[in-house]
Amino acid sequence: MSITLPKVRVPYLLLFPGFAFLFTFFILPIVNLAQTSTQTPIPGGDTGQYEQSFAFSNYINAFLDNRDQFARSFVYATLATIFALAIAYPLAYAIAFKSGKFKNILLVLVVAPFFTSFLLRTIAWKQILGEEGFLVPTLRSLHLMGQQTTITSTAVAVVAGMTYNFLPFMTLPLYASLERIDPRTIEASGDLYANGITTFRRVTVPLSLPGVVAGTLLTFIPAAGDYVNASILGSPNTKMIGNVIESRYFKIVDYPTAAALSFTLMAAILILVTLYIRKAGTEELV
Amino acid sequence: MASERSLSPEARSILGARISRRSVLAGAGGLGAAGLLAACGGGGSSSSGGDTNTVRWGNWPLYLDFDAKTKKYPTLEKFKTLTGIDAQYFEDYNDNDEFFGKVQAQLKLKQDIGYDVVTPTDWMAARWIRLGYTQKFDLANIPNAGNILDSLKSPSYDPNRESSLTWQGIMSGFGWNTQKNPKGIHTLDELFAPQNKGKIVVLTEMRDTIGIILMAQGVDITKVTEAQFMNAVDFMAKKISDGWIRGVKGNDYAQDLTSGDATAVIGWSGDMFILSSENAGKFDFAIPESGGTISGDNLMIPSTASASGKANGEKLINYYYDPAVAAEVAAYVNYVCPVKGAQAEMEKIAPELATSEYIFPSDKTASRLHVFRSLTPDEETTWGEAFQKAQGN
């Protein structure tokens, strides 16, 4: 007994730090946020003073007031995810199968942007896409872009910024999946008279699906809640729901609406992701 | 007309050579946007509150003369030797709301917040006073209080300056690219001139942007009504939806000017000062003919400061209202100096700055600067909401 009992406890002891962390930094804030989301201003109170009144109408008002920004968030996030997938798949494929001795260097290069802050990278894009950067004058002199057309402060810049910023999150899981494919399955496909395209379609893609699912989730979820790209690269006409939450929280000091919007965003993402995973399957996620 | 308000090229080049807090800021690259995700400062509350010989001052970063060699604040060091008071300085202000959020609970519970002097911006200072979170000065300890500029003497939130004194003043007006606007911008119509279409950026600071629009519409911003305010917000929203205004931004409008994305802005004097000095006359700034806004950050003593902390804080405030000391600070920070007589003192230490309209606006300029009236909590919410909605939030 004296030997087996601690053995039973060990798994729980090992789990304790994780649970304690999640409880303190996830469960408690979520509960707090839920409480805040149904508060209303104290009559005659000062800015930022709210009391609990279980006003679930906060949710309806918050959603109806900001439908455009919600829609924009999901459209931009979806576009960024599609573009990131289109760029990352060939990239990960080349690193996994064709890079030979450069594999490690290429992997480091994929992660290299993380050595600089997210914010600075986005600000750099603003300069690159700006009026007096390299790109816009070049395109204009080639007459590929009108003299009055601009890139920054448009949806194009916001989606481009998100695609760029989340690209490593797409590339790495894809690489992990592709790299794990047993080359013998590809050889076997050739032995069965499948050509390159058929092999790719029937063998490589299905085997890399877990990476696709993981990559799209890792891109879409943060992209839908992102507000940095929209605020730095966008204009008032490209504001996303993250910008609204930020302004509600810090500028208007309207904590309940900010909390209600956060919950609505979380719920919307959860529903979309659940549907997506049901369809794609989670058996071999990551 | 224009030359009276703008700096001469000579002055600009002299000023451009100076190393100031603004050059430090610009060198850091991130400018204001870096503050967006910057971690909040700590430290203030770690010091002891019971010591009778200390004063703890929470202020904004790069807002006090600093000697990079000795890593010390020269004027603060002098204060310590003069008075024997151990002045502890914390660059803990990152954002008015954030700072308020950090100390509000303790203020409510009347527990020491870790500062004997705080430095909130006007509208936030109004909130502190309204909530009773400040202590009235013992003016016997601050004989220099009378040195405050006439234009700053009686803000609506503290008409007799009983519990607040301006630390530095910030002017807002029109800034422009001189190549695109060779004649300069002095009226709202000139701001919305065809060459600037789609390249105008205005400030996220509601009182500055809407204040300037209101004054151009002939409204007295010290008495603005809700209908007048909403009318000005609609004007801005229309200019956004019609594609005139490209963005509503904080400090980062400076990057838009340098990248060419913006050719005309409603901006702050200090930022335009560094832009024009770093880009050899490519940018300029003027207070609109119809009027610009001036706001300030205010030295205040929180309700939780001990009797000795309060007395020492008052001595500190008095010290910084000495014209000679104020000039030394202004030579570094380049904001509007709120202290009468500092200009004469500046002539002794940096004569080229004594004529700077950025630091010492002439009477003519000062008469066109106005302070937005303080808002009730309800107005703060509904007006703020309207302003946020107009910018797509």
Automatic annotation (TrEMBL), chain A:
InterPro entries in UniProt: MetI-like, MetI-like_sf
Stretches assigned to the ABC transmembrane type-1 domain: 70-276
Name of the protein in question: Unannotated protein
Keywords tagged on the record: Cell membrane, Membrane, Transmembrane, Transmembrane helix, Transport
Protein's UniProt keywords contain Transport: yes
Annotated Gene Ontology cellular component terms: plasma membrane
Compartment list: Cell membrane
Lineage: unclassified sequences, metagenomes, ecological metagenomes
One GO term of the biological process aspect: transmembrane transport
Membrane topology: Multi-pass membrane protein
Family as reported in the entry's similarity comment: Belongs to the binding-protein-dependent transport system permease family. CysTW subfamily.
Segments crossing the lipid bilayer: 12-31, 74-93, 105-125, 145-167, 258-277
From TrEMBL, chain B:
Main location: periplasm
PROSITE patterns: TAT (PS51318)
One Pfam family here: SBP_bac_8
Annotated localization: Periplasm
Membrane-spanning intervals of the chain: none
Keywords: Periplasm, Signal, Transport
Gene Ontology molecular function: any one: polyamine binding
InterPro entries (UniProt xref): SBP (IPR006059), Sperm_putr-bd (IPR001188), TAT_signal (IPR006311)
One of the protein's GO biological processes: polyamine transport
Gene3D superfamilies, alphabetized: Periplasmic binding protein-like II
GO cellular component: periplasmic space
PANTHER family: SPERMIDINE/PUTRESCINE-BINDING PERIPLASMIC PROTEIN, SPERMIDINE_PUTRESCINE-BINDING PERIPLASMIC PROTEIN
Name used for this protein in its record: Unannotated protein
Taxonomic source organism: freshwater metagenome
